[in-house]
Amino acid sequence: MWDNFLQGILLTARWDTFGMMGLGLMLGMFVGALPGFTTIMAMAVLLPISFFMDPMVGIPFLIGVYKGGIYGGSIPAILVSMPGTGASVATTFDGPALTKKGKSRKAMEMALFSSVCGDLSSDILTILFIGPIAIMAMKIGPPELAAIILLSLIIISATTSGLFIKGLVMCFIGLFFSMIGQDPLGGMSRFTFGFFEIKSGIPLLPMLIGLFAIPEILQAVEKKITTFVAEEFNLKSGERLTLKEFRRSIRTILRSTAIGTALGIIPGVGQVVSAFVGYAAAKNASKHPETYGKGELDGIAAAEAANNSVNGPTLVPLLTLGIPGDKVTAILLGAFIAQGLRPGPQLFAEQGPLVFALLVAMVFANIMFVVLGYLTIPLFAKVVTIRKSALLPLTAIFAFAGSYVYRSDPFDLLVLVFFGIFGYTAKKLNFDVTPMVMGYILGPVLEYSFGQTLNLARGDTLHYIFAARPITAIILAITPFITAGLWWRGVRLRRKHMKELPSEG
User: Fold this and answer.
1) More confident residue, 451 or 193
2) Residue 158: CA atoms inside 13 Å, Cβ hemisphere, count?
3) CA distance 273 to 355
4) Where are the domains positioned within the chain?
5) Is residue 505's pLDDT more than 50?
6) Can you state the angle between helices 411-428 and 214-222, rounded to 10 degrees?
7) How many CB atoms lie within 10 A of CB 487?
8) What is the β-pairing status of strands 189-190 and 181-182?
9) C-alpha torsion 473→479→481→485, nearest 10
10) Using CA atoms, how far apart are residues 465 and 150, in angstroms rounded to an integer?
């Protein structure tokens, strides 16, 4: 592992890697600063650009977009109480109050520095622990992998927005879409309905762009507002963050970093949950919790450190098991596949230096991030005043062009439109598409692992699983209890919400 790490550092030492990573950070901050334009949409639209680059250039570019977008969402959250991304919702608790006090520059600097500290610390921890995790992952056989994927899909379905049952429905739809094309075991065509174009399966990249970019564009068109906000912000003369103020929040940043790192490893949890948990933990630990929500810098630090410290650990299940932890890592998985790389236990064995090079690139991205972010705070503060009519057509063009250029197949445009309409309809009906995407991506791996398990069992499946594979038996045994717990958690939250509705009126 140490040799792979050293080789990874050498692979990262390229000017084009740093150049594209810096461009990704700038684009991510730009999109994140636009209310309604999510980081997911930015990555989906910019994903095809990475196809024409070396993996050590294209994937760090997307990582830059990811990191920049999560921080960029805090800019409108602080200035106008409109979170640019879901991860910045908790930042709206104290950000706007600080802006009203004339401390918006101070709040944005706290958001930047706490984001970088949380992100950098979690990236270093990821590098330290991903090696041992990968070694354990290499010992996992088909039965264990099938059981882990099954449990992961259930957790993802339960932890996404909306009802648990809706998440399961979307997951099953994704599994069905994954079965269109060739059987991974026998090579037989199925569910093609006479369409030759899908005999090799539904193309992943037009699907991702359609599901994550087109619905956002259509929803933005629905809102008949020419600009996001009419107010101008001048931060050049604003009050700056002092070292004393930052030092007061170090304990909060460390606590939120630990929370985000722990939650980031769990598939399906993500930045939003981490930000709320980190904020709640900081408020509970504070000697003056009454100041939270009224313009508390510590609240900004707690939320931003927690949501950014998820970035590195979400790659652990992706790189070691091939299981995307959230929507962003699902898009990154598409980039890996397009580059001819399949994340999973074998990736470390075959491409160990490359894996560590990408992780090291994340560390360098944070160093670039703090410099670029600090210098461009006044610039990106003006992004919220850009007219939507100038951005939406350009975004749509990128979506269609990106779907076409990968294979130059006009059928991919039909796939884009179909899944764009599908994703838009799902949003209107309050269905989260994330379980569907995860089901589609993990479906072939689940089916192949399950088929291999049946072959290894030689007709005595129950004895093989529960006697010869104790880890598989344990995972399968706890799955019903975890499912029941997640189900009742969803029921309790639903009942609590229904009780609160009358009082809101």
Assistant:
1) 451
2) 20
3) 27
4) 2-144+204-430
5) no
6) 50
7) 16
8) antiparallel
9) 160
10) 15
* The two three-digit tokens of residue 30, written as one number: 């730009």
Inter-residue contact 392 to 221 (CB < 8 Å): yes
**pTM score, whole prediction:** 0.71
Bridge partners (DSSP) of residue 383 are none
Backbone angles phi, psi at 408, to 5 degrees: 55, 40
Structure-token pair, residue 118: 């949380």
AA letter at 178: S
* Pairwise CA distance, residues 155 & 238, whole Å: 44
Neighbours of 299 (CB within 10 A): 30
Q: Is 181 helix (H, G, I), strand (E, B) or coil?
A: strand
Backbone φ, ψ for residue 190 (5° rounding): -155, 150
DSSP, res 190: E
Residues recorded for the chain: 505
pLDDT-derived band at 444 (thresholds 50, 70, 90) equals: confident
Q: Give yes or no for a contact between 30 and 80, defined as CB atoms under 8 angstroms apart.
A: no
Helix (H, G, I), strand (E, B) or coil at 182: strand
Asked if residue 462 lies in contact with residue 472, where contact means CB atoms within 8 angstroms, the answer is no
* 189: three-class secondary structure by DSSP: strand
* pLDDT given for residue 257 in this prediction: 92
Check residue 17 and report its DSSP letter.
H
Q: At what angle do helices 15-32 and 39-46 cross, to 10 degrees?
A: 140
- The β-bridge partners of 387 are 227
Least confident of 340-344, 401-405, 422-426, 477-481: 401-405
The count of C-alpha atoms lying within 13 angstroms of the C-alpha of 198, restricted to the half-sphere facing its C-beta, is 18
Task: Specify the pLDDT at position 234.
Answer: 53
**Rounded CA gap, 207 and 338, in Å?**
14
Contacts of 209 (CB under 8 A, 6+ apart): 44, 45, 47, 48, 399, 402, 403, 416
Q: Of 232 and 76, which is predicted with more confidence?
A: 76
Lookup result for tokens 């890697």? 17
Contact between 306 and 257 (Cβ < 8 Å): yes
- First-last CA distance in the chain: 59
**Which neighbouring-strand residues pair with 190?**
181
- Residue at 454: amino acid letter: L
